[in-house]
Amino acid sequence: MLANVNRRSLEAGKEHMAERPSSPAIALLLAVLLVAPAACGGEVAPGTSVRVRAAVTGDEGTLNPYTYVSGFPGWNLLMLQYDSLMQLDKSGVPRPWLASEVRVNADLTEYSVTLVEGVTWHDGRPLTTRDVAFSVDYYLNNAEASRFARDLMDVQDVVVTDDYNATFVLSDPSAGFEMSALADVPIIPRHIWESVESPSEHQFEGGTNIGTGPYRLIEYVEGRSYRFEANADYFMGAPAVDELVVIVFADDAGVQTAIRTGEIDVIFERIPPEQIDLLDAQDPLDIALGPEFTTQMINYDASKRPFDDVTVRRAINLAMDRQDIVDTVFLGAATVGSPGWIHPGHPSYNPDIVAIYDPVAANSLLEEAGYLDSDGDGVREFDGQPMSFEIITNSPDSLRLRIAELTAEMLAAIGIRTSVAAVETGTWEQAVWPGFDVNNGRNYDIAMWGWSAPVQADPLRLPQLVTSVPVGGFLNLTGYENAEMDALSGTLGTESDPAERNRILGRMQEIIAEDLPFVLLLYPDGAYVYDSSVYSDWEFIAGQGIVSKLSLLPPSARP
Question: Does this model's pTM top 0.90?
Answer without folding.
Answer: no
